[in-house]
Amino acid sequence: MLEIVFLNLLMNSAQAMNGAGRIQVDITAHDDACEITFTDSRPGIPADIRDQVLTPFFTTKSRGTGLGLATAKSVIDAHHGEIAVDCPATGGTIVTVRLRARLT
Q1: How far are the Cα atoms of 21, 63, 83, 96 from residue 92, in angstroms, in the given order?
Q2: Which residue of 68, 83, 97, 104 lies most exposed, with the fewest beta carbons within 10 A?
């Protein structure tokens, strides 16, 4: 299921950049968690819709279902993790997935 999440995040970034830009994936290990960060150079998600992108059936695509990021959030939640979307003022979008190293 995590493979589906990561592929979805990569596909969303690639589609938003229309084939021009850069996607960077970073993995950072912490004592109690692993953080996977997807950073792209696309224009970013407009502030007025940013809070909705993880909501089921919300889409900005003409042929989208609005289930990709919502499914990603559900899978990460099921793994007791967190997913966050940020768009710095300098542009681009950063999606951070944080998964606990072990469940207690």
Answers
A1: 10, 23, 17, 13
A2: 104
What is the tens place of the pLDDT at every residue in 9-63?
998 888 878 878 899 999 999 888 999 999 998 777 777 777 877 787 767 666 7
Query: Amino acid identity of 23?
Result: I
Residue 82 main-chain phi, psi, to 5 deg = -135, 150
C-alpha gyration radius of the chain: 14
Count the Cβ atoms, other than its own, within 10 Å of residue 95.
Answer: 26
82 is written with which tokens? Answer: 């967190």
